[in-house]
Amino acid sequence: MDRTLVICKPDAVERGLVGQIVDRIERKGLKIAAAELRTIDKETAGRHYAEHDGKPFYDELVTFITRSPALVMVVEGPGDTFKVLRTLIGATNPKEAAPGTIRGDLAIETGENLVHGSDSPESAEREIGIFFPNL
Ligand code: IDP
Ligand code: MG
Q1: pLDDT tens digit string along 49-69?
Q2: How far is ligand 1, taken at its centre, from the CA of residue 52, in Å?
Q3: Residues 6 or more apart in contact with residue 50 via CB below 8 angstroms
């Protein structure tokens, strides 16, 4: 099976949208292989978002992702799973995300865009290693 990392970010948990998000993933035909509700600490957030260190939104991003519990998941599919997830999630800026996508239907601000999905197979394995080192 081909796997990727998905996070229902703190805004998704706060707004009670985790069920809808997991439902969309499952209805698509993907499988939740692991899941943990956890408050991500600053060190882990820094590792996860290392590629964004130094960007203007970095501090805001770390504050956001660590502010309250997030549902961190490994999702499995038959292939190109990261891509399938990114299509379901929609564009980074929810104002530009297509209707029918999670961000397109349920979010409006880039800084509160509900879901993370790995952007390549390599990112998926790296990120799974950060959150689920025993898998
Ligand atoms: P992605 O989540 O669609 O892969 P990235 O470019 O990897 O988007 O950015 C990571 C996350 O950083 C975004 O999902 C969003 O939460 C946040 N972010 C990106 N750009 C901005 C911005 O301009 N302002 C505030 N937050 C941003
Ligand atoms: Mg990204």
Answers
A1: 999 999 999 999 999 999 999
A2: 9
A3: none
